[in-house]
Write a structure and sequence with these properties.
It is a single chain. The chain is mainly α and 220 residues long. 70% of the residues lie in helices and 2% in strands. It has seven helices and two strands.
Length: 220
């Protein structure tokens, strides 16, 4: 055995290989991601044409659930692709931001009462501005080789956004309002406010994290 054989292996671990865009990119995880885009189109149609609020809420929950499923399958079976890394966040932004836009100041009058979504313009502006800013920031940092993947606060933000959207959709259904009672709108508004607060907080947290990463990278 030579002396070189006794030397410890100091080679750093290789990052997870991302496959280029090609025919192999159309795997199961990416097909699930693409299906989320088609589901969003159907969802927007259901919101645009009043009367399908429960169906729209169920469809949104199913579409949101595919976000966790495609990511899990891609990591579990080593099918992370460039196409997937582009499409997955794009599909998330389309379905969340798009649904908020369609629910903006939405009101229905099935009888003498007026049902409202509870979504105001300033809420939508905050959500879209945060998503655009963090997406741009992530692209800049990852272009320079810095890991800026989502953390727990980003996942909590996504969860609250999904709950708030589901509540807003259901609050436009007369049958849900009759069964749930007056307190349902209070819960909906509470989740909408919590969503806005966490959305702003997560944006600030990501800015602080980005500054720390850039500072560490400059000192190396």
């Amino acid at each position: 055995m030579t002396q070189s054989d006794n030397r410890p292996n100091t080679t750093p671990p290789q990052p997870q290989r991302v496959q280029p865009i090609g025919s192999e990119s159309f795997n199961l995880p990416n097909c699930i991601t693409i299906s989320r885009l088609f589901l969003s189109v159907i969802l927007f149609w259901l919101i645009w044409y009043d009367g399908y609020w429960i169906t729209a809420a169920v469809l949104f929950v199913v579409a949101a659930a595919t976000d966790a499923l495609d990511g899990y399958l891609a990591r579990r079976y080593g099918q992370v692709t460039t196409l997937g890394r582009i499409l997955d966040p794009f599909a998330d932004k389309i379905i969340v931001c798009g649904t908020f836009v369609f629910l903006l100041d939405r009101k229905v009058s099935p009888s003498q009462e007026i049902l409202e979504s509870g979504v105001n313009a300033w809420m939508v502006v905050i959500v879209i501005a945060r998503e655009m800013f963090v997406t741009s920031l992530r692209g800049f940092l990852e272009k320079h080789g810095l890991d800026f993947s989502a953390n727990w606060i980003g996942k909590a933000k996504m969860m609250l956004q999904c709950i708030a959207i589901t509540g807003s959709l259901l609050s436009l259904s007369p049958s849900v309002q009759r069964v749930a009672g007056e307190n349902f709108n209070l819960w909906r508004d509470g989740f909408l406010w919590a969503m806005v607060i966490v959305t702003v907080y997560s944006g600030v947290a990501y800015v602080i994290r980005a500054m720390q990463l850039l500072r560490q990278n400059a000192n190396e």
